[in-house]
Amino acid sequence: MPVPSRPTRRFLTVLALICLLGATIRVSYVAFFKPDVSPCAASWLEKNSLSDITGRTTYFIGRAPDNICGDALVYHDGANLLAEGEGFISPIRFIYTDGARFDSADHPPLYMIYLAGFSVVGLDSVLAHQLASVFLGVVSIAIIGLLGRRLANERAGLIAAFLASIYVYIWINDALVMSETIAITATATLLLLTYRYVSDPSRRNLVLLGLATGATVLTRAELLLYVPLVMPFLVWRVSRAWRPFLLRLVAIGALAAAVTAPWVIRNLTTFEKPVTLSTGVGITLTYANCEQSYYGNLVGYWYFPCITPAPDEPDQSLDEVILRKRGLDYMAAHKSRIPVVVMARVGRQWGLYRPLQHVELDNFDDRPPALSRIGLAQYYAFMAMAIGGAVVLYRRKVWLWPLLSMFVIVTITAATSYGTTRFRTPAEVAIVVLAGIAIDAGLNRWWRRSADDTDVDPGVAPAPGAEAVSENSSSPSS
């Protein structure tokens, strides 16, 4: 059967219906099922804990949104301040306390910039930002479908897209106003362009891949690991000679650096101490390396009160230095415990250590336990199928490393910080794609048996480039 150069009309029609299903699930949750008051909302926490201790009502009560919490409040308010021309500043004190204006680099900026684009045109409510995130989630479904199609065939792509549309650990992010949503979209795009470049290492695809790499790094800092883990091997596959290898590798790196440079230069010239992608390392090292996260019931997790007393320097980078030293000092004083803690972190990350406790802990990331239990069951099923999908691609001699690198990146992230479900989101893309391929392979086998060894399944169109990503293919020159 000839390899189609474009998706068939049937594929696009079914993919659109799957995207509609995904949008319906996401919008329905936002509109009808998401709790009105998040269990981690600032006002809820202060009203039920701090106010009891201090005997007074604190500054969030009646002012901060009740249906988002934690980092989501920073993204939401930060995007609105950015749209108002205030720049990247810390919104908490500026809005809720004394109006102090502090430059901020809490997170890489792309998600906040994305939300600010909606705020500029008046769509600045929590609901508007949730729906903006839903749009990204629907785009992710389509890209995942295209990725599965490229790696296997159209039916595998549609199955992968369907799994992405119903998978709790993917769609719930869209209601939380958190960067996991854009990280999933960026990861799916990066993987799709990676395999597209393997199939056709043209200059155009090189440019797209380089730009996508830089954009992905601006969604989640740990995705920078994709560059050293994948790019050298990718470029060598399509080069096979040192001169084109070096030229292409430098070109991709330069394009990615050009995308990230404005943010990095802004940080280096804004703060007293060097800051590149974010100032989040210090606070993470502090609350992930303390008594409760090393020896208590939360081993391998984090404990926010460990940052107390919190530094309050006039420059965020100075707070970062203080918190980083606090975390590193604790690690140095408890070296013998680190291997146990790292194993617990990785075990939590992959649902292998105290998963039911982790379901309850996810509640403080605004993930209701009932939904988390469904998501955990889906995760176990999809992960088992993903292993089968990896075996299928390996037997077909399809290059697996870009997909598998997401599991490595997530593991490194957990080992060096803490284990939590939301850190697994880059790997969720690979999980649903591989699971879709496994299901498709199972259907192919069933079809052959039920059709008395018929050679071709007329319902499956092979993907463009599926042969080109295999070990034995020859690559065209760029």
From TrEMBL:
<keyword id="KW-1003">Cell membrane</keyword>
<feature type="transmembrane region" description="Helical">
    <location>
        <begin position="178"/>
        <end position="198"/>
    </location>
</feature>
<dbReference type="Pfam" id="PF13231">
    <property type="entry name" value="PMT_2"/>
</dbReference>
<feature type="compositionally biased region" description="Low complexity">
    <location>
        <begin position="457"/>
        <end position="478"/>
    </location>
</feature>
<dbReference type="InterPro" id="IPR038731">
    <property type="entry name" value="RgtA/B/C-like"/>
</dbReference>
<keyword id="KW-0808">Transferase</keyword>
<feature type="transmembrane region" description="Helical">
    <location>
        <begin position="376"/>
        <end position="394"/>
    </location>
</feature>
<protein>
    <submittedName>
        <fullName>Unannotated protein</fullName>
    </submittedName>
</protein>
<feature type="domain" description="Glycosyltransferase RgtA/B/C/D-like">
    <location>
        <begin position="106"/>
        <end position="264"/>
    </location>
</feature>
<dbReference type="GO" id="GO:0008610">
    <property type="term" value="P:lipid biosynthetic process"/>
</dbReference>
<feature type="transmembrane region" description="Helical">
    <location>
        <begin position="156"/>
        <end position="172"/>
    </location>
</feature>
<keyword id="KW-0812">Transmembrane</keyword>
<feature type="region of interest" description="Disordered">
    <location>
        <begin position="454"/>
        <end position="478"/>
    </location>
</feature>
<dbReference type="GO" id="GO:0016763">
    <property type="term" value="F:pentosyltransferase activity"/>
</dbReference>
<dbReference type="InterPro" id="IPR050297">
    <property type="entry name" value="LipidA_mod_glycosyltrf_83"/>
</dbReference>
<feature type="transmembrane region" description="Helical">
    <location>
        <begin position="400"/>
        <end position="420"/>
    </location>
</feature>
<dbReference type="GO" id="GO:0005886">
    <property type="term" value="C:plasma membrane"/>
</dbReference>
<keyword id="KW-1133">Transmembrane helix</keyword>
<keyword id="KW-0328">Glycosyltransferase</keyword>
<feature type="transmembrane region" description="Helical">
    <location>
        <begin position="245"/>
        <end position="265"/>
    </location>
</feature>
<feature type="transmembrane region" description="Helical">
    <location>
        <begin position="427"/>
        <end position="447"/>
    </location>
</feature>
<feature type="transmembrane region" description="Helical">
    <location>
        <begin position="111"/>
        <end position="144"/>
    </location>
</feature>
<keyword id="KW-0472">Membrane</keyword>
